[in-house]
Design a protein that fits this description.
Elements (H helix, E strand, L loop, with lengths): L1 E2 L6 E2 L15 E5 L6 H8 L10 E13 L2 E19 L2 H11 L3 E7 L1 E2 L6 E7 L13 H8 L22 E5 L10 E5 L5
Parallel strand pairs: 3-8
Antiparallel strand pairs: 1-2, 3-5, 4-5, 4-7, 6-8, 9-10
Pfam families: GGACT
InterPro entries: AIG2-like, AIG2-like_dom, GGCT-like, GGCT-like_sf
Protein name: Putative gamma-glutamylcyclotransferase
Length: about 200
């Protein structure tokens, strides 16, 4: 669902440009994949993890996730709900770092954020901009991704409200094998391990 920026309504199947001018900061961004992880987000933004204290749970309506390999990809879906986390991005440099991490297969999309307190501000997210045929049905499991990314150690940061399912130890999970998740062509199957 793309917003109609003139009326404030959301219109299905239409693309949208950013609702903000490039000098309006801070700007809320909605994350629904690996960027819900505070440590990963801190690495990408080159920011101290303490500065991510504004990271909080939210959801958006009118979008759902499919998978591009092991990565979630947001697509239009009337009445669907996607849960994730929102962070106030501080400047255009951070937006550029996020876009670099997301690659050219994702584009910035304006959306309405819905918080637990009932507030509904406008924000932005990264939406799939590749071929629909490259996606498959499935869900992203943040906790499983964290266990694999951090070598089976404890989850870093607070992800309260992220609504991710638990994956049993020893389950096969498809995950990127290169650090930073930028080389999306090299995907392998790894086994989850017990936290030490």
């Amino acid at each position: 669902m793309a917003p109609n920026l003139l009326s404030g309504e959301e219109v299905y199947g239409q693309s949208s440009h950013r609702q903000y001018s490039t000098d309006t900061f801070p700007r809320p961004y909605f994350f629904y994949g690996s960027l819900m992880d505070p440590q990963r987000l801190s690495e990408i933004l080159r920011s101290d993890i303490k500065h991510l204290s504004s990271l909080r749970p939210a959801h958006i309506i009118g979008y759902r996730c499919k998978l591009w390999g092991p990565y979630p990809a947001l697509v239009y879906a009337p009445d669907a709900v996607t849960h994730g986390m929102v962070l106030e991005v501080q400047d255009e440099k951070q937006v550029e770092r996020l876009q670099h991490y997301e690659t050219s297969n994702y584009r910035v999309q304006a959306c309405t954020l819905r918080f637990e307190d009932g507030s509904e501000p406008r924000g932005e997210t990264f939406m799939w901009d590749g071929e629909e045929g490259e996606l498959r049905e499935g869900t992203f499991d943040l906790k499983a991704w964290q266990r694999l990314e951090y070598g089976g150690h404890a989850v870093h940061g607070d992800i309260t409200g992220a609504r991710q399912a638990e994956v049993p130890t020893g389950t096969d999970v498809l995950i990127e094998t290169t650090p930073g998740a930028l080389d999306r062509a090299r995907v392998g199957v790894m086994r989850t391990r017990k936290a030490s």
